Amino acid sequence: MSDLQTKIGESFAAQGLMKTIGAQITHVAEGEVHIALQFSTLLSQQHGYVHAGAIASILDTACGYAALTKAPLDHDVVTAAAGAHDVLGDGADSIGVGDGGTAELLDQQAHGT
After folding, report:
1. Is the pLDDT score of 45 beyond 70?
2. Any idea where the domains of the chain sit in the sequence?
3. Cα–Cα distance between 50 and 108 in angstroms, integer?
4. What are phi and psi of 38, to 5 degrees?
5. pTM attached to this predicted model
6. Contact between residue 40 and residue 20 where contact means Cβ atoms under 8 Å apart
7. Domain boundaries 3-106, corresponding CATH code
């Protein structure tokens, strides 16, 4: 494991929100970080789908760490602004975001379809 992967892994492990929602880093490469979020009814909104707040949280985190892969090892990054332009429709099981971050949703459908 590289110094950068170790730095990102330790930083991610220190994030209480990511622990709380059960998110996991699944891939780290230059300019790219994937975070997986297993569906849980504890993370759902009133219609049974994963809540946009949970999605936005992993999108923000994935994009921040993707930016960190481009920064010098002795630097850190924070999000100044974030936006999500993709919407999950029926049958979708993942969402991708530009700018180097990808957030994967596993078993997104609450009803197993």
Report:
1. yes
2. 3-106
3. 7
4. -75, 135
5. 0.73
6. no
7. 3.10.129.10
